[in-house]
Amino acid sequence: MRAQRMRRTPLSVILGLLFLSVAATSKCSGKYHELLLQLRHQANLMQDTSTLLDPYMRIQGLDTPALKDHCRECPGAFPSEDALRGLSRQGFLRTLNATLGLVLHRLTALYQDLPEAQQLVGLNIRGFRSNIHCMSQLLRSSSEAETPEPTQPSPGPTPPPTPPSDAFQQKLKSCRFLCGYHRFMHSVGQVLREWGESRSRSRRHSPCRAPGDTALARPCRGGARRTWPFRRDRRLMPRGQLPR
Amino acid sequence: MALFAVFQTTYLLALLSLRTYESEVLSEPLPLTPESLKVSVNSTCQCLHLQWTVHSLAYHQELKMVFQIQISRFKTSNVIWVENYSTTVKQNQVLHWSWESELPLECAAHFIRMRSVVDDSRIPESGFWSNWSSWEEADAQNLLGHDPLFVFPKDKLVEEGSNVTICYVSRIHQDNISCYLEGVQIHGEQLDRSVTAFELKNVSFIRKKGTNVFCKMEQGGVLGGIVLFVSKVLQEPKDFSCETQDLKTLTCTWDPGSDTGLTKQPSQSYTLFESFSGKRTLCKHRNWCNWQVAQDSQETYNFTLLAENYLRKRSVSILFNLTQRVHPMTPYNLFPKNVGATNATMTWKVHSIGNNSTLLCQLELLTEEKVIQQHNVSIKVNGEYLLSELEPDTEYVARVRCAYTKHFWKWSEFISQKFNTAEAAPSEAPDVWRNMKMVSGHPTVSLFWKPLSKVHANGKILFYNVTVENLDKPSRLEVLSIPAPARSTELTLDQCSYQIHVTAHNSVGPSPASVIVVSGDPGNEEVEKGRVNGTEDGFSVSWKPQSGDATGYVVEWCDGPQDLPCVLQWKNLGPNTTSTVISSGAFRPGVRYNFRIYGISTKRMAHLLEKKAGYLEELAPSDNPQVVMSNLTSHSFTLSWKDYSTESQPGFIQGYHVYLKPKAGEQCHQAFEKTVLPEDSVCCKYTIDNPEQKTFVVENLQPESVYEFFVTPYTSVGEGPLDAFTKVTTPDEYSHILIRIILPMVFCVLIVMIICYLKSQWLKEKCYPDIPDPYKSSVLSLIKSKENPHLTIMNVNDCVPDAIEVINKPEGSKIQFLGTRKSLTETEFTKPAYLYLLPTEKNYSGPGPCICFENFTYNQAASDFASCGHFPVTPQAPPPQLGPLTSPENLLKALEQNYMNSLGEIPAGEANLNYVSQLASPTSGDKDSLPTNPPEPALCSEYKMQMAIPLGLASAPPRENSSLSSTTLLGQGEHCS
């Protein structure tokens, strides 16, 4: 655990610096609605498997029925949708920023495999993170006095050091990673869709209902922050069939 | 002697020691068993690596030995490989030997042992094997983890076309493990309980990312796989050559062939090696490499290009002399200098090669992408050449390339430069023609000229000068300047002859003049007309040579159809020419073109010689004439189509076909021929072979018969379209005679009728004079005087009726009654009405005998009721009487008329009427139908007055319950006593 914490500390610093650098170099729009729309659109774009996963599978020869079944998201690689919903807005944005930073890092390793797609997706992620920064600033300046929430550690994209795996395992790992990335962006889009039109909302994204409440609000969850509720059962659908 | 003894002793000792050595090394049996055998596994190359020593060797001993190695798989008894390895062995030397396994070593345990034998000629008795070493096991499976399924070999790199053995190791002993090569299932051989091997033969390159081979357990979804990296076979570089542009640097190029790069293997590398200098350079590019020429005047080079990747090496070599591989650089600074209308000087520069080297340069001149001049020039650095025989105002392209003069190897690349020569005055007179016509009584000449070709214009034509000179009387020259690009002008002249000069001008000057002479006479002389045949090449026009001194001929025509404005075209021909072919892209089939051939006299005046007309291709007529029929008789009629123009048809009209459909059963007349129309109807056809005959009389027809006719023209190609036939009916043979008789008769009758009308009064007096008045009759006076002086004539007016009962059946008419002066509506007459003749009150004396006037004109039905009782008869007056009954006067008149008829004056025509006499008084009136003022009931009537009733109505007695309206009309002055 200590070693893990030691590894995360410089990572957090790097992410923070990256976050700051984005903040310093970009000019933010002060319009909440406009920013939210952009984030939603970008999330929609980034969840599209045709931008990254499909070409990767095609290039690597993984687009056969037998191998497609094994190109699933590794459980716990990315925060689940429920976990994202359980975060405050600021916490959500911080987690999103951190996760995308790791994705960016991982994509660099895939450059040899997907040079063009990797560049495009890299630009999208950078733009998305810039908007995350702006949204974070906007929320911070609003009346929402929110207790700072620690960034949820992103456990997935940097796997623990393992013996060098063979090319086949590498292919599957990368495929699963990309699968998880698209699923994650889909979940992000879903959460962003639940954000209201006003920036002054409660701490959570949407109200929860009591057990006896029959209103169409999401059920209250206990322990959403105590554990890291990664999705373990959700599989990425082909393009156009992502769960909405 | 002592020295000798010392030498002898030493020799003996040495001999003894040698003997001892030999006895030790050569004479002893040699148990040289391999020892310390160690086996290791190299998974990368799938190799078993062996190392051992032979300890038994003496110090400095070096022997040739043979080691026999046995390799078993899975178990020691399963020997799969035996190999003898020969080598020279030293004391304490560690020996190495490797063996590459086809089956991945991770899939099976291997056992190795060896023995040795001395194979050295120095030891003759050495030919027996040592004992086997103990078995050494190499089991890579021990290195595997705990996964349930493994596939080997991992990330193996092979060449395309190789055979590869793949195996899987299953920790769970299941049979339902399937393996796939790129998604296609493959089948292998089970080697062990948990090991199955697959032999892939002749593997092919699929992608740079490798070929996926994987196995999966059906239960649990366990997946194991490998990536087999199949590289394309490295090819030998093709077209390897080296050359220099400056004798300082050599550039070697080649065709690398396929790229063998994979994820597992970088693309092949290329190394250039020069054997004389022993230098080597690693090329940075796949298909070319630079080599710096040594300064030590090395002339000959032997290059070897080595291509290699992880799997293979390929090389190719060339040997050459440096000066024979000079490929000069492209010349530069190519410019035109002193460009005139017909010449220009080209200058250029070249890069120097070595010291004082000479280059051979080739200067080419092109126009419209064709080389028209080529010149070779030897230069050192600067080149210059004068190009001549150029065309004015023409764009040229000059290009230069150079080669090394000493040893020609290759031309350099071209350098090109465009330039335009200057303009010059037009070199040829414009081609001029004229057209004469009269406009408002003045001879007018239209001048046409063709634009000069680019070759003759020598620049841009700016304007044309037209100079008019009167030849008949001296006058000032008239000069017209017409700006280009006009191609015609019009001049109004008088009856004099004029000479017209036309010149074309560009920026440099005028062209030679084109001269033409015209006179005031339009020249509409009649000349021979002929026809000309069109061919694929055009119209072949020929004419008779002009008698006299013709300086040439001109053929003139219009390009378009006759109905379009004429675009005058002409062709100049020499004096000895009597035929030509006129071709034009504007000629179309089915259009008549008229050609005029003129002869040009020595005075440059044109005379019309002939006219020709022709079609490029004749077509069938497109429409039929509008035929007018006239002179229709019972036996013939005339057809005429005089408005039909034969000139504007798509072919020469050769005549007409007159189709006539005769009446059924009638045969064609002798002049006609029987023909079958496309719709299978039979008709008669008459052919008129004179296109100018536009009338036709159809004869020998039957009177009162229907004929159908149709006229169509025909050309050499065919006849016009089949239109609808026109029907005509021949009249009766005698109808005209009847008309001649009836018309005068009708006229006469009319005259007589008019005369009669005018003389009607006279006729009346003569034929039917008025009835004489009895009071004025002489007969009366005669009676009065001779027989009875009281005798008088009874006046009807003196008879006063007691009552009048009017019986009538309402028919919707409205009757106004006398007694009440009241009009009754139609609804009030829904019952028969009775007209009673009732006695007045003062004369009424109660019931008494009735007085009846018999009227013998009653019909039988009516006369049967001789009593004076009521008998209902539907009253209906005859048509002349019914209408007038609506007024009292007419009613009285009607009564009077009835009365008069009762006196025997009923005309015979009224015999079908029923006359109802006066009736008995009604016994019971129909209360409901009585008017508001009902008459008094009367038991009897004394006066009968008959009424005319249509027979039909009279015969239909009313029903008892029918509701009839009964109205009594009373009037003091109207009672008849």
Automatic annotation (TrEMBL), chain A:
UniProt feature, compositional bias: Pro residues: 150-164
Family of this protein: Belongs to the LIF/OSM family.
Record flagged with keyword Disulfide bond: yes
Span list, region Disordered: 140-167, 196-227
Signal peptide positions on this chain: 1-24
GO annotation, cellular component aspect: extracellular space
Signal listed as a keyword: yes
Subcellular location, record wording: Secreted
Biological process terms in GO annotation: immune response; oncostatin-M-mediated signaling pathway; regulation of cell communication; regulation of signaling
Lineage, top ranks: Eukaryota, Metazoa, Chordata, Craniata, Vertebrata
Chief place of localization: secreted
Keyword tags: Cytokine, Disulfide bond, Secreted, Signal
The protein's name: Oncostatin-M
Organism the protein comes from: Physeter macrocephalus
Coiled-coil boundaries: none
One of the record's GO molecular function terms: cytokine activity
Name of the encoding gene: OSM
Automatic annotation (TrEMBL), chain B:
GO cellular component: apical plasma membrane; oncostatin-M receptor complex
Classification via SUPFAM superfamilies: Fibronectin type III
Transmembrane domains' residue ranges: 737-758
GO MF: growth factor binding; oncostatin-M receptor activity
UniProt protein name: Oncostatin-M-specific receptor subunit beta
Keyword Secreted: no
Family named by the database record: Belongs to the type I cytokine receptor family. Type 2 subfamily.
Keyword annotations: Disulfide bond, Glycoprotein, Membrane, Receptor, Repeat, Signal, Transmembrane, Transmembrane helix
Protein species of origin: Physeter macrocephalus
Keyword Membrane: yes
Residues annotated as signal peptide: 1-27
Subunit structure: Heterodimer composed of OSMR and IL6ST (type II OSM receptor). Heterodimer with IL31RA to form the IL31 receptor.
Subcellular location: Membrane
One Gene Ontology term from the biological process aspect of the record: positive regulation of cell population proliferation
Source domain of life: Eukaryota
Region (Disordered) residue spans: 954-977
Topology relative to the membrane: Single-pass type I membrane protein
Fibronectin type-III domain boundaries: 330-424, 429-524, 621-733
